[in-house]
Known about the structure:
By secondary structure, the chain is mainly alpha-helical. The protein is about 70% helix and about 0% strand. It folds into two domains: about 55 residues; about 35 residues. It contains four helices and no strands. The longest helix has 26 residues. It is elongated and about 85 Å long. This is Transposase. GO terms for molecular function: DNA binding; transposase activity.
Amino acid sequence: MTAKRKRHKPEFKAQVALEAYKGEKTINQLASEHEVAAVQVRQWKRQLLQGVPEVFGRARPEVDPDALTAPLYQEIGRLKMELDWLKKKSGNVH
């Protein structure tokens, strides 16, 4: 009978990797405490350290102001036409 592989959430992996990075406890202590293999803790720590530059190097996507405002201006124009039509129909032209 084979044991099912345990799947860990990313938050759990990050927590264990950060504890390993801090170095307050040994890898073996962390592995025992969190009930995972020491090799796994080392791997998560390595992944953390490899991924850190991406966090600070990632640029925000550029937003085109025209792409944001064009639909709004279209909506304003449509609503203004509807308002004018309703005013005309009701006889309250100002």
